[in-house]
Amino acid sequence: MNVPIEYCEELVKLAEEGNADAQYNLGYLYMKGQGVEQNEKECFRWFKQASENGMPKAQFYLGYMYINGIMGVSQNIQEGIKWYEKAAAQGIEDAQYNLGEIYDNGVFVKRDIQKAVSLYKKAVEKDFPPAQSNLGACYLNGDGVVKDVQEGIRLIRLSAETGLPQGMYNYGMCFLKGYGVEENQDEAIKWITKSAENGYDVAQCFMGDLCYRNGYYEDAINWLTKSAQQGNQMAKQKLSMIKR
Prior knowledge:
Order of helices and strands: HHHHHHHHHHHHHH
Number of helices: 14
Oligomer: single chain
Largest sheet: none
Distance between the termini: 65 Å
Number of strands: 0
Radius of gyration: 21 Å
Shape: globular
């Protein structure tokens, strides 16, 4: 059955009849405000129904809403993890990666790096850049896997070459420290600058500090301000020290 992807009476009818694809499409349209006025309540309603009917993309979005307490949904970590687990089991790489980060960081749950690595690997099989970067870091540090510097560099390079800001920063730091590659300051700054220009707050903070230490105060304030505006605490501290 061809399910409409634009808001129309047929889409609403199919959703009300229990078609999971239609329910997901309708929830997505309400989330984005495409063809219909944005409505958080309706978005949640249709994603919830689609999730209960086994639609993996809806399960991912529903999990994301619960984890972050957005779209009018009260934060509920366990409920969010439950839906992430369901989406990840059906091959949604965003869910595999996000769930991997939850187990990797150990903020919402007890840290389980083996489970995180397993999830990252599944997302990497689908060439998902954020998972490539995180799994690469695991290999570099021997965290949850047997240490393999070359594999770590390979994965981080792949993520950097796709334009992932975090990957570009990590790749640059490898050149800066000569970790797995020959130390190369110019190559390091090239990749870290790209990362900063693409909005990665950690890279922006790094560039701000680098510029300050080399006497480029206007550039330093510019980079640190951009980083601080994203909530980077270290950048905020450095800015306050510069402006004293």
